[in-house]
Amino acid sequence: MSLNGRNAVVTGGGRGIGRATAIVLAEHGAAVAVWDRDADGADETVDRIRKAGNMAVAVVGDASVSKEVTASADRTHAELGPVTVLVNNAGISTHSPFMSLTEDAWDQMIQVNLKGPFLVTQAFLPDMLAAGRGRIVNISSSSAQTGAPDMAHYVASKGGVIGLTKALAIEFAAKGITVNNIPPGVVDTPLLRQAFDPDEVAATMPMKRAGRPEEIAYAVAYLASDEAGYVTGQTLSVNGGRHLA
Question: What is the pTM of this model?
Fold first, then answer.
């Protein structure tokens, strides 16, 4: 499985699943633009990739703000050229009982988790259409498959990502572009640790352990590869058995 000659963008690539994904894509031969709002995080990911002898650039900006997406896409094109692999990973997660959930919290969640992938995908679809080949992988959440208490805004945003995946898969299937999504289960990342003890949550799961970011990243690499050329509109659940499709 090779990604040699492919240029990839990974949003939220400065830590966690995004960082692991950027590193694994680079290991498979892709040149990777690591997008993140956190310059230090993006730089650290790029440094790890370059130390391994692979190609990456850091691109700092907010993937949910139209003007910043345009500027980041312009920089990516200038540094790498056309992009044919896109991983929409950037996201946020907060908790609130539904009756205490504010309109601002709802809007922010939708802005980052759903509007962000919309904006970034629009920015790079022209490259894929011109190439007659593209791979889009959206990171959703197993919470959107099972539901979750005190997370209505998060679950709704990630459910929207799954719906967006299916709509784009149908619209662009004949153009050589595949669109799939991965809903991670309990994965030991900084974002998860802000809210939970991963070991305590994992104890309730069939595998009795948290996933590793790399386990999501390898699934992304498959969906980004030529070997997955006949896979589109799919939800590839990497969740340790939390949800059985």
Answer: 0.95
